[in-house]
Amino acid sequence: MNTKRNTTSALIAAAMLMAISAVGPGFLTQTTVFTKSLGASFGFVILLSIFIDIGVQLNIWRVLTVSGQRAQDVANRVLPGLGTILSCLIVIGGLAFSIGNVAGAGLGLEALIGLDVTTGSVLAAGIAVAVFANRQAGQVMDRFTQLMGFVMILAIIYIAFVSKPPMAEAALRTIVPSAIDFMAIVTLVGGTVGGYITFAGGHRLIDAGVVGKESLPEVNKSAVMGISVASTIRIFLFLASLGIISQGMAIDDSNPTGSVFQLAAGAFGYRLFGLVMFAAAVTSVIGSAYTSVSFVKSFSPFIQRNENWIIITFIIISTCVFVVVGKPVNLLIMAGAVNGIILPISLGVMLIAAYKKDIVGSYKQPLLLTCIGIVIVVAMTWMSVRILLGG
């Protein structure tokens, strides 16, 4: 009974860590910016991205669970050295995200309580450091991310309600869009399951000992739960932004998400934006640091023994870069696109691993899931190439 309760707790924790890792300042900014440019047709992009996200997450989490190994170790067994390359890509992307998230946390505290952005960023980083300085870091991380996720969902649903979005038009354009934007699709998928994000929950399951074929039914539910939480937040933020646009109000390009909250609910709305931005940013700092370090800890016994201190160092470096260099101008939009470009590589490696008996043993990956994964790799590669070529 106790073991079942612990497993259930680990599955919820993995889903929430993945979801809250995705919902950072970039996620909020991307959603508002693309709603402004695409209008109700952005609903189609969200719907398509949800299907892609689920296909990606199920393929990756199932392979990791059955193998009982982290992604870098699986990749190295597919091709020696490939895991090291994948780890480098993930860590670099995770660091870039972390810098942007630290900046976002500072912006959130500025909106919430009027604190200077730099001071607020350092304070937020201190909260993240405190999570990993605790002896029960895993449990503290799980509880904190779940609490912040609950706060964000309630706040965004409230703003969506008061902004009065045109629900009929949103429903129609979600099925029959008047415009399709490849950049938006790649960015949304990359911002939800690209780079380090989808591995955050998968690695959390391995750390919790949820491995083996017998765990697959529960892992499937956890994977879909993670996507569902992130997608729920995105849908309500889309509706909130659409409501403001449909009323003819102008969204401020310098702070699009904050502008939506303020236009919807005045000064209170702007404070609420500060709370959401802070919650999204600090939890994403935690998620990116935890997952990035999980990609290198199997390479060295020293890192394994000092994992929490390495994570803390990662957070401190991210904060120092922001304080010294300043906020990266386009990072919050481009980080999702970069992760979307990395995605076909990481998913492709997992699809190959699913058919190597020395990695997954007697496990047989469902053919439908493999076909979905291949279609996603091809489609994401094609869209990524178009973006890189400026098409």
How is this structure best described in words?
It is built from 17 helices and no strands. By secondary structure, the protein is mostly helical. The longest helix is centred in the C-terminal third of the chain and has 39 residues. The mean pLDDT is 88.
Residues in β-strands, percent: under 5%
Strand count: 0
List SSEs in N-to-C order. Answer: HHHHHHHHHHHHHHHHH
Query: What gross morphology would you assign?
Result: globular
Main beta sheet: none
Unreliable stretches covering 5 or more consecutive residues? none
Average pLDDT figure: 88
Number of helices: 17
Beginning-to-end CA distance, first to last residue: 56 Å
Helix content class:
over 70%
Structural class category:
mainly alpha
Work out the radius of gyration. 20 Å
List the helices and strands and how they pair.
Elements: H1 2-22, H2 25-38, H3 42-67, H4 71-78, H5 82-113, H6 117-133, H7 137-163, H8 167-175, H9 182-193, H10 197-207, H11 216-246, H12 256-294, H13 301-305, H14 307-325, H15 331-353, H16 357-360, H17 367-388
Write a concise synopsis of the structure shown.
This protein is mostly helical and 391 residues long. It has helices at 2-22, 25-38, 42-67, 71-78, 82-113, 117-133, 137-163, 167-175, 182-193, 197-207, 216-246, 256-294, 301-305, 307-325, 331-353, 357-360, 367-388.
Keywords:
single chain; 391 residues; 82% helix; globular
